[in-house]
Amino acid sequence: MSRHAGYRCTKEEERHHVPEPEPVTTSPESLHHPRSLAAFRGTKLLVGGYLALSVMALVAIVLLRDHPALVNDAVWVRGSIVVASASVMFGCAVHATRGSRGAWRRLRVISGLMVGAIVVIIAVPGAFPVWLKWEQGACGILLIGVVLLVNGRQLRRVFAAG
User: Fold this and answer.
1) Measured over all CA atoms, what is the biggest interatomic distance in the chain, rounded to whole angstroms?
2) From CA 59, how far away is CA 126, in angstroms rounded?
3) pLDDT tens across 6-50, in order?
4) How much is the pTM?
5) Residue 88: how many other CB atoms lie within 10 Å
6) Model pLDDT for residues 87-134, shown as the tens digit of each residue
7) Buried b / exposed e across 130-148, counting CB within 10 Å, b at 16+?
8) Do residues 110 and 96 make contact, with C-beta atoms less than 8 angstroms apart?
């Protein structure tokens, strides 16, 4: 037996151990290019706006909880999911700004999925109250900006596999 990762393990366990992958980052030159800085700044502002709007909507949900015509179970679920996704997206935006390719990829995927979900919420009749559809429409406008920035030529160049 040998020592590994702070505990004793067998040779068999050592053979099957897969090391943690190193975080994938990009070069400081491409991160600090003026176009990159502008794209990152815009992304963080838009995602920050999405997070702020989502938190305000959740506060409104709490305040309106005794009005079933304005706040139903679907509104509670959606409001919670939106705040959680906005928080994750903001963290991804910050980490992508620091050069994390994985965070940039997550930001691309989550922003695209959330825009799709917002389109469905706005289009489905009756499931959500009108006030939430307007709020989600505003969130969607912010997220379309995020989608355009994180999928734009400059950030794709920054995070190109190298």
Assistant:
1) 65
2) 22
3) 556 666 656 666 555 545 567 777 888 899 999 999 999 999 999
4) 0.81
5) 16
6) 999 999 999 999 999 999 999 999 999 999 999 999 999 889 999 999
7) eebbebbeebbebbebbbe
8) no
Q: At what angle do helices 130-150 and 34-63 cross, to 10 degrees?
A: 160
Nearby residues of 9 by Cβ (< 8 Å), 6 or more positions away = 1, 2, 17
Cβ distance 102 to 25 under 8 Å? no
CA dihedral 26, 27, 29, 33 (to 10 degrees): 0
- What single-letter DSSP state applies at residue 19? P
Token readout for 138 is 């505003």
Q: Hey, which bits of the chain come out as E strands?
A: 2-4, 7-9
Identify each DSSP E strand in 5-158 by its residue range: 7-9
Q: Which helix (H) or strand (E) holds 3?
A: strand 2-4
CA 76, CA 79: separation in Å to the nearest integer?
A: 5
